[in-house]
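quick one, 206 residues, struct below
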Amino acid sequence: MISSTNKFEQLSDEKQSRIVNASISEFSEKDYESASMNSVVSQAKISKGSLFNYFKTKNILYNHIYKLALGEVKDYLRKVRDETANLPFNERLSEIVDSGVKFITEHPRLARIYFRLVYSGDSPNRKKIVKELQSMSEDYLGNIMQDAMDRNELDPKLDKTQSVFFLDAVLNRFLKEYHETLSKGKQLDRDNWVNSITELFSKGFK
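---
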């Protein structure tokens, strides 16, 4: 028996794209409770029966969109990690912070969904999703810090768990502020913020 999600994956790329874009638009503009399957149907220009044939509930659709977004983030971060592997810690951290800014600039709707999920608490399965995001961040930042500690660029005696926690907290807060500023049509001094965060942790972890 073919599951509803598999039925969606058997659609043409064009139709999948319409449904995904409509869903991202709806979940980025409204909180989870206010988001409407009817609005997704209208924006995607499909029948309501078709949407429910692919996604039985709003929760299932939301989880599908979240997983797609998380996959994009993972691919993006993996690329930055690999391309900066040979850089010293301060330069590598600068590239990573700046990559977060670039992702938000290029994917503002996904960023809006992410920050609403993390900070609003209205999304389904929030605890599970946030735990998964934290684990991903800890692995990502932890590996980068471990590389620097192995090369004696950072103090090998650092408490890596605490250090990753501090770095992750500052990055999340900065990126949230940057996203909110962009949403208001304003600009932060991107280079100054990236340089300040890089300098703070490059010197503070030594």
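The chain has two domains: 11-56, 63-204.
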